[in-house]
Amino acid sequence: MPNFDPTFVFHRLVQDDQALDGIVADRCLDQELFVERHRHTIARHYASEGLHLEEAKTRQLAEDLWTYMHHLMSLTRRKTAAARRPARANPDRTVNAEGQGNLCRDDDERILFRGRQRMDIRDLESIQDPRPPCSDKPPE
Question: Could you tell me where the Pro residues compositional bias lies (predicted)?
């Protein structure tokens, strides 16, 4: 019995280039249009593996997939927004020239960062999403 968790459905569909292209292109559609278009995509994918799903099941999987994708997009937006915020001064954090440092909350609690590559949150600004941003205007 296959796992119908939206995470697994998404990862199964992204292995099919045609399905992936369609799903990514339609990521900004409202839920009803997305479900109407991609319930067939999901049904075809599972039928190719010998599992024939009822229409209600494919509709539910498409709704869950849309919700999962929008959750991922909101996480991406929040991380991008956080990366664009100015760095906060944290007087408790000290780092030496080798990039080793510690974060002191008090004398009894000390967390050491040794031998790890440090990445400043501002370095994330250089990472760009290759896809165009979603617009708020309705699809044509």
Answer: 130-140
CA distance 70 to 66: 6
Q: Is residue 140 within 8 Å of 102, Cβ to Cβ?
A: no
Q: Which of 2, 67, 83, 72 is nearest to 35 (CA)?
A: 67
- In angstroms, the CA 48 to CA 2 distance is 13
Output DSSP code: residue 112: E
Give pLDDT tens digits for 81-138.
777 766 655 544 555 455 555 444 443 333 334 344 444 445 555 555 555 666 555 5
DSSP H or E stretch at residue 67: helix 55-84
CB 110 within 8 A of CB 102: yes
Hey, what are 47's tokens?
Answer: 């039928």
The token pair at 81 is 């927004």
Backbone φ and ψ of 43, nearest 5°: -60, -45
